[in-house]
Amino acid sequence: MAEITFDNVSKRFGATVAVNAASFTVRDNEFFCFFGPPLSGKTTLLRLILGLEVPDEGRILIDGKDVTRTGPAARNIAMVFQNLALFPHMTARDNVRFPLVERGVPAAQITARLEEVAAKLHIGHILHKHPGQLSGGERQRVAIARALVRDPAAYLMDDPISALDARLREEARVELKRMQREAGRTLIYVTHDQEEAMSVADRMAILEQGVIRQIGTPAELYDRPATSYVAQLLGAPVMNLIPPGLFATRPGAALVGVRPEDLRVTPDPAGRAEVTGVEPLGGYTVLTLRAGESQLRVLLRGQPAFAPGQRLHLDAAEERLHHFAADGHRLAG
Amino acid sequence: MTSAPTPEKDDGAGLGLRLTLPAQVLVLFISLFPLLMQLYISLTDWSPLSGMAWPRAWEFWNTFANYLDLVSDDRLWSALGRTALVMAVCVPLEFGLGLALATLFVDDFPGKRVAYSILIMPMMVVPAVAGYMFFMLFQSGGPVNDILSWFTAEPVSIAWLSDPTLALIAVMAADIWQWTPLMFLILLAGLVGVPDDQIKAATLLGASPVQRFLTIVIPRMKTIIVIALAIRCIEAFKIFDTLYIMTGGGPGVATETISVYIYKITTQDLIWGYVAAIALAILLVLSLLAVWAMRRMAK
Amino acid sequence: MSAIHLQGLVKRFGQFTALKTMDLAIADGEFMALLGPSGCGKSTTMNMIAGMERPSEGRILFGNQDVTGLPMGRRGVGFVFQNYAIFTHMTVRQNLSYGLRMMGRPASEVASRTGTMAEMLGLTALLDRPAAGLSVNILQRLAIGRSAVMEPAIFLLDEPLSNVDAAFRAVMRTELKSLQRQFRQTMVYVTHDQLEAMTMADRIAVMDHGVLQQVGTPLEVYNDPVNTFVARFIGAPGMNLLPGRLLQHAGGLCVDLGPLGISAPLPGPLAAAAASAPAEVIYGFRPEEVQLDPAAPLGLPLTVTERIGARSILHLGEGETSVRAVFQSGEPLPEAGLVRFQPAAAAVRLFDAATGRAIRGV
């Protein structure tokens, strides 16, 4: 059980505001992800949750209890480090037991907890091995088992799979998602990879220079970004943001956004767009177009035949357009 | 919200100071107390022969007389000059040799580990023993003369340690033998620390080995070179044990360096107020040298 | 002149063979990606082209000139290191002009060529800044410019984007590609990221375990992988590969996929080719080519759904019998239970289960 609430929390380091008036609630058993570019305040938020930093303003509550000034030891929150930090000279079993042995928990209780966690994470059959003999995924499971064995209210992960190859990352994130479902518990996760964030998170918070710009499910954030900043952080290729004129525009809009997959193109010698680049990716093709003064990217399924120089008719369904005011905020409607 | 200090907020400086205070006091006491004591004695004419304990040295107060004396002390000045000469000859030679050897040892070659062990062995030898070894080597019937006589094909019997110039050369040879390995070790660490990619990048851009050495290796090692030179300069300035065993500062005072001179007037003349004045003056000179070196390094 | 020919190239390190007989021809002005997992021999190949390693066997030709024995400083290749290897103790200008200065070119020539290159790369304003502490995209441009100013006919790039943030990589890819268009040199690009290879390269050489697996355009290796390794390595996610047995069923040659069911009859040319193949096969199809259909012959339980912006990935089944299916996010998708599906007929690929080699219909 753990619900973590930030109530208007700010943290400054000298003149820099690392976290600015953050308010949010991470729900029990939720996979919650902080996402933002480097130095946007993700790590400071983690440290505030762990109790390694004390906020300058605001309150932090765990299950309704004010822990703003409670030290890390009393918060019962576990951390899985980026490099996993397994002890190489110990077996997986000893690694997992370690936090309990350290705390002097009775042996019978340790065994019971160990079995419970091992069953949940499906690592019973590898407990006798040393970390060096385990695959990357298995090591990750062992590290998470070690975090969960002392029954923490929640556990945190700071960019745990960023060091892996692109191919392994795709598998690891699905694995991670399943693991969190199976093991339960609130998981707070930090990443700078938008694809990873959208893949694993139940809900995510988007950070920009210490300010939480939007919180919601990945689908909500992707489909209805609250600001043009959020719109550009999610999605690959990134959303096209162009001055009004090319598409039907609402009054007050300074920028019109349209996702590359929402653009429709058909060959048309009199069309207003010209193909400047074709990137066939196999399952998808990315076209780069020039229309008026704007450059746009189009994501198409399959391997359609387009060639640079070709002219196209270009449009997008009105409900797929995003309108942003001059200050970057989404226009209602 | 409250702005009263909480224990956590105090973490920064307060707690750190409290935790390290005992150690800081100890360090201060260890380094500061002897210094102040020395300063005090240097302003007096006190000697252990005076029959009084040093705290009562004020009874022999002579203000700056000791400092004025050392200005006109010819023996001191020639010892200082000699020390500077040893430094000026030995340190560059040790640096050159050390750098050359270190360059050799960056790449692998058969027998590297053995050669490495042999090379750094002189550094491990107790300086007094090294002094004794070189004392034996430079005897008039010693191996050095034997080797020279092989080359010249006639018997050589140079009295190395009895000739003022040759004795100094012998002393320098011993110093170079003993301390080139340290230079080698420090410079090797520096050389190994030059990223391989940078060397390769320079090679691919057409730089010759000499150009690579001058434009990449040396600039990247600047800090370590300054440190190595500073350590050896300071150490060479204090040269004592090897030399004392080889020549005892002789013949006469021909190989007397600062340390040997101080040692002699401390143990033979027992003019401790004067000794303290010399020691403080040297400390001042060395400190200025060190500051200068640091400044250069920071640039 | 700047075509590259690798002929029977072998590289051994003691007992270990890093590269087993590599033959590859890279055309003048071509952008060739050497793609593979770590330890596949791609970097060894690159290092031999640069002259950092000597091949144990074989020859390297630039145009008609045999450069196998030529030391690395005299091959005239540009090289961009993974960490860029910028001389951080120099200014941007000193970095750019380094090669020309070392060659002893006259000062006026050094100044003008450095200036032109800085202009081209947008580095003019930064010329007198120290190279330490520049941002990563500036470093990349500087690394390229430092080599390009020497006007090498051949450019080698060793995973230049692997230290770059995921978010920034797309920007860097675009920039790199436009730089290549500008310089029009022969480029060899080493990477383990299939997306980088697919987006930038004219042709891709896929490598594994010191063996060249396949050479072709991005679409060739994507559409017609020669073996299961290439099939799995190219694409995100890679091709679905399911072990099965050929059998006659429902009036055609089908594949029995065990717990999944029996596939639809293979299309004509593929069936003809499979007729003479061993019965044990691997049945492959791209995740993008999966069709959902309650009447479809194959079925697996849904385990996880990933929605990543424009795409949704369904993960079906587990372990050996797992299938990933990619859909556009708008499409209606099942949320749980058994999912029935089949690959589009034209998308089916077969591989020999014993050798992993593709069985091709002509």
TrEMBL record, chain A:
GO MF annotation terms: ABC-type transporter activity; ATP binding; ATP hydrolysis activity
Signal peptide (from-to): none
Gene3D superfamilies, alphabetized: 2.40.50.100, Nucleic acid-binding proteins, P-loop containing nucleotide triphosphate hydrolases
Name of a matching Pfam family: ABC_tran
Keyword GTP-binding: no
Record flagged with keyword Transmembrane: no
ABC transporter domain sequence ranges: 4-234
Any single Gene Ontology cellular-component annotation: ATP-binding cassette (ABC) transporter complex, substrate-binding subunit-containing
Alphabetical UniProt keywords: ATP-binding, Nucleotide-binding, Transport
Superkingdom of this protein's organism: Bacteria
InterPro entries linked: AAA+_ATPase (IPR003593), ABC_transporter-like_ATP-bd (IPR003439), ABC_transporter-like_CS (IPR017871), ABC_transpr_MalK/UgpC-like (IPR047641), Mo/tungstate-bd_C_term_dom (IPR008995), NA-bd_OB-fold (IPR012340), P-loop_NTPase (IPR027417), Transp-assoc_OB_typ2 (IPR013611)
Family: Belongs to the ABC transporter superfamily.
Name of the molecule in the record: ABC transporter ATP-binding protein
Organism: Tabrizicola oligotrophica
TrEMBL record, chain B:
Membrane found in the keyword field: yes
Domain of life: Bacteria
Domain ABC transmembrane type-1: from-to ranges: 80-293
Membrane topology, from the record: Multi-pass membrane protein
Main location: membrane
Transmembrane regions listed in the UniProt entry: 21-41, 84-107, 114-135, 176-193, 271-294
Compartment list: Cell membrane
Gene Ontology terms: cellular component: plasma membrane
Classification via Pfam families: BPD_transp_1
Family: Belongs to the binding-protein-dependent transport system permease family.
Name this polypeptide is given: Sugar ABC transporter permease
Species for this entry: Tabrizicola oligotrophica
Lineage start: Bacteria, Pseudomonadati, Pseudomonadota, Alphaproteobacteria, Rhodobacterales
Automatic annotation (TrEMBL), chain C:
Coiled-coil region: none
Residues making up the signal peptide according to the UniProt record: none
Keyword tags: ATP-binding, Nucleotide-binding, Transport
UniProt superkingdom: Bacteria
Domain ABC transporter intervals: 4-234
Gene Ontology molecular function: any one: ABC-type transporter activity
InterPro entries: AAA+_ATPase (IPR003593), ABC_transporter-like_ATP-bd (IPR003439), ABC_transpr_MalK/UgpC-like (IPR047641), Mo/tungstate-bd_C_term_dom (IPR008995), NA-bd_OB-fold (IPR012340), OB_MalK-like (IPR040582), P-loop_NTPase (IPR027417)
SUPFAM superfamilies: MOP-like, P-loop containing nucleoside triphosphate hydrolases
Keyword Ion transport: no
One GO location term (cellular component): ATP-binding cassette (ABC) transporter complex, substrate-binding subunit-containing
Annotated PANTHER family: MALTODEXTRIN IMPORT ATP-BINDING PROTEIN MSMX, OSMOPROTECTIVE COMPOUNDS UPTAKE ATP-BINDING PROTEIN GGTA
Family: Belongs to the ABC transporter superfamily.
Protein name: ABC transporter ATP-binding protein
Originating organism: Tabrizicola oligotrophica
